[in-house]
Amino acid sequence: MRSRHLIAILVAGVLLTSGCANHSWFGGSRDPRLTTAENPLFIPTTDRDFMWNTVVDTVDDYFKIQSEQRVRLIGNYLSEGRIETVPTIGSTYLEPWRHDSTPGYEKLHASLQTIRRQATVRVIPAPGGYLIDLQIQKELEDLDRPEFATAGSTYQRHDGTIVRLQGATLGSAQQLGWIALGRDTSLEQRLLLELRAKFTKVGMVTSPLPVNDANPAAY
What we know:
This protein is α+β, with helices and mostly antiparallel strands. It has a domain at 39-146 and 174-209: TATA-Binding Protein, CATH 3.30.310. Helix content is 24%, strand content 25%. The chain has helices at 4-17, 48-60, 105-112, 185-201; strands spanning 41-43, 65-69, 73-74, 77-78, 81-85, 88-89, 115-126, 129-143, 175-183. 19% of the residues are buried.
């Protein structure tokens, strides 16, 4: 998987030298008229099975789902639902069929370095519907040295860092873990906008009811 990065670097170099790498290609320029979705996103429906299946279907297009805790009616109250996904290595420019890395900076970053993402979705019952709280965390692979460095690769390190070589190939870079990079808001927006579009197609509005005017029967 890591060897793809060499090819991605060559592709990026060709784009740069050919003048294709303009400001918008890197994701640094966006049309301010583009719509954005609120996070949490309000979904005005009381059909919790339809809502849950739609959310799961949307998330499943980007990540493999690790666990689901569905919204349940317990007595007179609805419990909070939760979806967690498996950490997924980000797609590169060499994988156009995958969409977990958004075009521009995120796609380029995943092409040049090993990036992984994990999504957590909270489905919160609210008056007149549900709130979809989506968080996608992004992490960078932490190696003991640059992946393709060759100098000193066969020597034992003496800088205080413990690197265990059991089960590893001698001379190759060793993974030390993952470095948190914060949230990937661009991918969060992509999923939320897809959800909003799906619920809009069935004739639903996308603004929450005021709490004072909400119908208690919606619970």
